[in-house]
Amino acid sequence: MGTYEELYKQVIRRIDDLESGSEFYLRDIITMPPALLGTWLSVDVESGKIPDVERLGFVVSAQKYRKK
Asked: Into how many domains does the chain fold?
């Protein structure tokens, strides 16, 4: 494992590789993600830094997302 920044870059690359319309949880992208990565992803999606992803909300106590 690397630093949180390296892990987050890996998350973004994997999201970029998803097909449009794919729904996912962060745990689908990376195994056992640190909570900080979940916070970063949520903030970046809501702020528009990741424009092709929308947050669907909490489902089964985790944030669910969809690639646009």
From this structure: 1
Torsion sign (Cα): 42, 30, 35, 65: positive
Stated pTM of the model: 0.88
Q: Which domain holds residue 9?
A: 4-67
Strand order in the sheet with 23-25: 23-25, 62-67, 53-59
Go through 4-26 and write b for each residue having 16 or more CB atoms within 10 A of its CB, e for each that does not.
Answer: eeebbeebbeebeebeeeeebeb
Tens of pLDDT, residue by residue over 32-62, are 999 999 999 999 999 999 999 999 998 878 9
CB atoms within 10 A of CB 64: 16
